[in-house]
Description:
Layout: E1 2-8, E2 14-20, H1 32-51, E3 56-61, E4 66-71, H2 76-97, E5 101-107
Helix pairs in contact: 1-2
Amino acid sequence: MTNVLIYQDSEGLYRRFxxxxxxxxxTSGEDLVCCAISTLVINTINSIEAxxxxxxxxxxxxxxxxxxxxxxxxxxxxxxxxxxxxxGLTKIMENDNDKYIRxxxxxx
Length: 108
């Protein structure tokens, strides 16, 4: 199962998101659920870098596929981009894939 941890402060601003674990929908390299999750997450990180001036740090473990993005700031644009990522991930989970992806929201 892929776990997505979304960390927000008391004002609802995003501070971090982590993605780890293999969905297990299919074998590695053929897993469409993993592919969809990775695409959304990586596109969000690329979009934050390309379209905002917000500071952030990303750690990626290429072997395991784990991604950890820590946001130093969370502008209106970053909030919209991460909201969009969470929406996409939630829609994946709602389409009978809740045994392959879990989204956990935590307040920091």
